[in-house]
Amino acid sequence: MAVNKRSKPLSGLVCLAPAGVLLLTWEALACWKGSPLFPPFSAVARQFYALLVTQGSLWPHLAVSLGRVTAGFVLGSAAGLLAGVLIGWNRLAAVSLGPLVSIFYPIPALGWIPLLMIWVGLNEALPVLIVFICCFFPVLYNTVSGIRSVDVGQIRAARTLGASELQILCRVVLPLSLPSIFTGLRLEAGMAWRAIIAAEMIAVPTGIGVLMMKAESLILVDAIMVCMAVLSLMCFAFEKAIGYFEQKYTRWLEGRP
To answer: pLDDT tens digit string along 168-216?
Structure first.
């Protein structure tokens, strides 16, 4: 036990060491070059504090982006999960809907922006729909993959014991598919933020993407880096949140209480 306690701080230092070296190298190179187009880390940190506390202009944009991502992620993931269950469990649905999904899946979420700008206009629905599309197809594919990877022997055993098809789906297939489903959710938690930034740059007047574009027009490189750091932190937070729920709801598969 003593060895484990001593190893925890050491492992923490090992994890933080590369980031520390990167920040120190960044600071040294930026100070050596002395170019406004490559600000040091200290300048970016001051700009972050200014946008967050002194000016407070970061909060409204972050709140708007967070709301759009959350709405699009929840709706897209729910729709992808339902469609994935239908296609993965029902053979007729797989034969009829599978080709349609294969046709639309290769189209990038951002590739829908010109068409959606015509159909829905430049309003709040546009970025939400972009995130919806970004999340829908990968969650669908991971759900289908998880359902089809379930051991057929367990399904037959449940049928032998008299379980109905709905009971087999809810109590056998879906629980065993959770690892694959959560993998799709965790990956799309980060992709959703990448999609919203691009959508905001093009289509709407508020959000982190807009703040980044305004900084670019004024050649405020430190502000652009602050926006990039916020994007990274939000992606990390979303992925960690999904990872928490994954551990919570799949723990029983490993035989833990």
So the answer is: 888 888 888 888 899 888 888 888 888 888 888 887 888 898 999 898 8
Q: Which CATH architecture has domain 45-254?
A: Orthogonal Bundle (1.10)
Rounded to an integer, what distance in angstroms lies between the CA atom of residue 105 and that of residue 198? 19
- CA atoms 51, 219, 117, 238: torsion sign: negative
Write the CB contacts of 71 (distance below 8 Å, at least 6 apart in sequence). Answer: 128, 131
Query: Please, is 75 exposed, middle or buried when counting C-beta atoms within 10 Å of its C-beta (0-12, 13-18, 19+)?
Result: middle
Average pLDDT, rounded, for the chain: 84
Q: What are the residue boundaries of the structural domains of the chain, listed by start? A: 45-254
Pull the structure tokens for residue 131. 């995130």
Would you say the pTM of this structure is higher than 0.90?
A: no
Q: What pLDDT shows up at residue 140?
A: 93
Residues of the chain predicted below pLDDT 50: 1-3, 256-257
